[in-house]
Amino acid sequence: PADVPVTAAGALKSYKLAAKAISRLQSLPSGNIPLLCDVLVREVSDLSGYERVMAYKFHEDEHGEVIAECRRSDLEPYLGLHYPATDIPQASRFLFMKNKVRMIYDCCAPPVKVIQDMRLGQPLSLCGSTLRAPHGCHAQYMSNMGSVASLVMSVTINEDDDETGSDQKGRKLWGLVVCHHTSPRFVPFPLRYACEFLLQVFGIQLNKEVELAAQAREKHILRTQTVLCDMLLRDAPIGIFTQSRNVLDIVKCDGAALYYKNQFWLLGTTPTESQIRDIAVWLLECHDGTTGLSTDSLTEAGYPGASVLGDAVCGMAAIKITSKDFIFWFRSHTAKEIKWGGAKHEPVDRDDEGRRMHPRASFKAFLEVVKRRSL
């Protein structure tokens, strides 16, 4: 398909190819984002002819993960690899919001110098240009991974209502579909447009899936709140720890504790009474303006005594039931393996203004075991 000539017949053929791919995407069952991404990368691979096509998702901390991949069989797999946020700088993410498709025919080709008219009041912006030469850092990055040509398309979804603060929803960058080739490759405009159209349909479906997942989480939270309030109103705080159906039955956790009128009721795996009292004092001192706290890592939340708790207690949810009394839920530490692409990322390698960006030299998987976190 990538060799379709730029003619009316070629354009029609590419649209037909996109229509078939769109039909296959729309026929997928709902509630399965990984499957949606798997089918997408296969369809983009068939349409564009690139040797490697990846779906790349940005996490909340802005680092990226390859969640789907279609590749030539002899190429090293990148599926499941994580990359630090600095691999795609903020300036690049801004450009992906403005220009949804970016093609590099040959990263090794010498760029053509752009001569600007000196009479222009402002420097010429090439943000919207598909002919813009790649940054030297990015060209080196591609070369280091054995890639010569690329096609990158952005995937945007609606921002959450609470992020925009109004009824007018904005858009945010969810991720990228990244295509790579080990030799120079040019995809004619009709096929690029067909791929972009496919990505727009994918974005609409993905947005629905993200919203459905958010609604399911919201319903679960509301159900939990309703059950908990009903138990508190009917049985008082002590009753929800002593009745046959107790707080452990409504929240997935390893242990729960009630600190009420200087007395303790403990269920499952919890800190000691003195440690719980210390946590309550810390909450009153550092989070007095809130009705509670939820964290999957007491260490990251800033609790000074977190290291003493050991692996048995790591994450915590706490709600204030009076001015000095609390209900706690605790989760144990769960080791999680994360495969990073290349050498271990150092937190100091930030994308700061004035800092010279260095391309990644290695793409071999680096395994990191994340500790002091509950799941």
TrEMBL record:
Keywords: Chromophore, Photoreceptor protein, Receptor, Sensory transduction, Transcription, Transcription regulation
GO molecular function, one term: photoreceptor activity
Tree of life domain: Eukaryota
InterPro entries per the UniProt record, alphabetical: GAF, GAF-like_dom_sf, Phyto_chromo_attachment, Phyto_chromo_BS, Phytochrome, Phytochrome_cen-reg, Phytochrome_PHY_sf
UniProt cross-references to Pfam families, sorted A to Z: GAF, PHY
Function: Regulatory photoreceptor which exists in two forms that are reversibly interconvertible by light: the Pr form that absorbs maximally in the red region of the spectrum and the Pfr form that absorbs maximally in the far-red region. Photoconversion of Pr to Pfr induces an array of morphogenic responses, whereas reconversion of Pfr to Pr cancels the induction of those responses. Pfr controls the expression of a number of nuclear genes including those encoding the small subunit of ribulose-bisphosphate carboxylase, chlorophyll A/B binding protein, protochlorophyllide reductase, rRNA, etc.
Family, similarity comment: Belongs to the phytochrome family.
Phytochrome chromophore attachment site domain ranges (all copies): 32-200
Gene: PHYC
An individual GO BP term: detection of visible light
Protein name: Phytochrome C
Organism classification: Eukaryota, Viridiplantae, Streptophyta, Embryophyta, Tracheophyta
Keyword check for tRNA processing: no
